[in-house]
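Slide 14.
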Amino acid sequence: MGILADTLAWLTDPTHWSGPTGIPNRLVEHVGLSAASLLIALVIALPVGLYIGHTRRGVALAVNTANLWRALPSLAVIAIVLPITASIDPRAGFLVYPTVVAMVVLAVPPILVNAYTGIVGVDRDIVEAARGQGIDERRILTDVELPLSVPVLITGIRSAAVQVVATATLGAIFGFGGLGRFLVDGFAQYTLGGAAQMLGGVVLVAGLVIATDLSFAALQRALTPRALRLHSSVEGPLA
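Slide 15: predicted structure.
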């Protein structure tokens, strides 16, 4: 019980809730890096996933590339990218960019694959009926396929967001801030106080991961057309 009490004491210590190394500032750093990484991954993966899902072109190349990215360990990506980015920008190229690149690599596969899967999963009769009415391909994608693929699409973004938030702690190993800083600094101390700081960091990261997952679950429900929600409640989970 000692370590749990010490962890609670560390989390409730007012001195840990102020200043540049305090919990609020570290939380902002962590969320900022995670959000930037997820946004970049969306810009890369979402158009590709929608395109290959709608046209069925380049599917093998895009999906296989995404799966290759999925196999790359985030820590290895950071280590590989760091010398390159550090030579370009000695400060941000060492502290920020490598972690962002690694998080983008981590987030692209679930977003791309789920975007493709969601579009492909739309009933072809609905799509052909839209074509029969003379609707152009761009509108078929944006007005027909995209709304119907929202549950699967948001599932991919949700998965990517949770993975990024949880894994962004690795950036602290290379000097970045964020909530991972508490784990790294606590481990470096090798004291009971350091252990409490480590466990406190774990609690904070876990809380942020849960909050992220619940937020995207609410977003998924809000963006899913009512007819699909009703169908899901009868037939079971969508994806």
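Speaker note: The first helix runs from residue 2 to 12.
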